[in-house]
Amino acid sequence: MNDLSWFTILSTVSAVLGVAIGMMGPAMAMGRAISQAIDSLARQPEAEKSIMRTLFIGLAMIESLAIYVLVIVLIILFRNPLLEHLINR
To answer: What whole-number distance in Å separates Cα of residue 23 and Cα of residue 84?
Structure first.
């Protein structure tokens, strides 16, 4: 196998690992946030509106972290400057 195919395989594997590791944090944070929100609603049902509003804002921020991970991995996969260097060699 030549350098180009090894580089492509390694960058694909690292992108898959990056997505897997990068998505675990936001997924666990979302689960914890939802769990705490349900616990808060069980303790104070009259504060439902403020709890839900804060929950949705927090979930949107957490989800943006997962989207950033995906965008960075896609940039690395499809617009990798090292790949262009290997092709022009």
So the answer is: 28
